[in-house]
Amino acid sequence: MQQRLDALRKKFRTLGVSNFIITRFENFAQGSLRYLCGYTGSNGVLLVTNQDAYFITDGRYISQAKEQVKGAKVFIYSGGKSISDGFTRELKENKAIRFRGRIGFEARGTSAEFYRAMQTKFPNSELVETTDVIEKIAEIRNDDEIQLIQKAVDITDRVFKEVLGLIKPGQKEQELSADITYRHIMYGAEKNSFDPIVASGHRSALPHGIASDKVIEKGDFITFDIGCYYKGYASDMTRTVVLGKATDKQKEVYEVVQKAQLKAVEAIAPGVKCADLDKIARDIIKEAGYGDKFTHSLGHGVGHLVHGRPVLSWAALGKLKPGMVVTVEPGVYIEGFGGVRIEDDVLVTESGYQVLNNSPRDLIEIDC
To answer: Strand 237-243 vs strand 364-366: parallel, antiparallel, or unpaired?
Structure first.
């Protein structure tokens, strides 16, 4: 943890700030707090200064904070109605906490309420909004982190394999989603890394088609986008299958996406531009006549956040580096017909790439 905190200090000094605040706001900041100091609870703020680090939470989490937090001094506030009120009061009144100067914060992980509280309580301190500071530190995974990501991937692969044997006409998407969640936990995951996407028939044309009460029918495409957290690290995988025999049109669309995904994966290597990787897949889909049906970026980083740096998109500026783990997930989505997405988690190695998933990528037709 100390190395990560020191890396953060080095980074925020280049931004001209002398303090940095990480709040617990939605999944982004929860992952960042765990990454920087080990805390997994639902309430807390980490203040990192040039010399020290302070973790502040309320009395409900005193035992958890003292057990989990590494590299920071733990303080428990009292009398605050909210984390923003309690934190700012503790900074005002606790002489053991020393900070001054410009204060950096991640806009993506800070609530408007917290920002207003800081403005009100510290009107003479300049609040400096930053973007992806922690993610830039974390985008290169070390060997231990890669092993944890691989374990999360292995759990998701196992869950997908077993769920395939459960699919039958008449089931609701929500039933399969519940089974995915159950099996993730049973096989050692902490939780899903996002709500499972189980989208069948015409709903498979929804890139983010969270499971609904739609009944799965013979002939449907079924897209599964699933993942889990294992000891703080995420997996993210997508497969599209057909319940019954695939039509010629379904096979055609699937083969286009499969080719785009394969060629993009094969191009992964250190130094490759993220935008160029996106272009490889996008050009294949465009040449097949489905360019306007690929409506999202090619992929993103996976680590302590399920959606992080680097971003693989047409607008991305960065290049791939060894130790990055990225998703490669092209898709084609045709309203009224259905859609296909294939996604793997891929490690960028010193000489190329390693696909972490072992789930099949060829079209699966499920007997029914």
So the answer is: parallel
Domain ranges for the chain:
2-138, 144-366
The whole-angstrom separation of Cα 29 and Cα 274 is 25
Q: How far apart are CA 130 and CA 128, in angstroms?
A: 6
CA atoms within 13 A on the CB side of 30: 12
Q: Kindly state the average pLDDT of the residues 272-301.
A: 98
Residue pair 176/166 in contact (Cβ under 8 Å)? The answer is yes
Q: Find the angle CA(25)-CA(36)-CA(138) to the nearest 5 degrees.
A: 95
91: confidence class by pLDDT, cuts 50, 70, 90: confident
Cβ atoms 142, 323 nearer than 8 A: yes
Concatenating the DSSP letter of every residue in 225-259 gives EE-EEETTEE--EEEEEEESPPPHHHHHHHHHHHH
User: Tokens for 28?
Assistant: 């982004």
Span of 18-22, 129-133, 193-197 with lowest mean pLDDT: 129-133
Helices (H), the chain: 2-14, 26-37, 62-68, 83-93, 112-121, 133-138, 143-164, 173-186, 248-266, 274-287
Pairwise CA distance, residues 43 & 294, whole Å:
39
CATH topology of domain 2-138: Creatine Amidinohydrolase; Chain A, domain 1 (3.40.350)
144-366 fold: Creatine Amidinohydrolase (3.90.230)
**Backbone phi and psi for residue 58, each to the nearest 5 degrees, phi listed first:** -100, 175
pTM for this structure?
A: 0.93
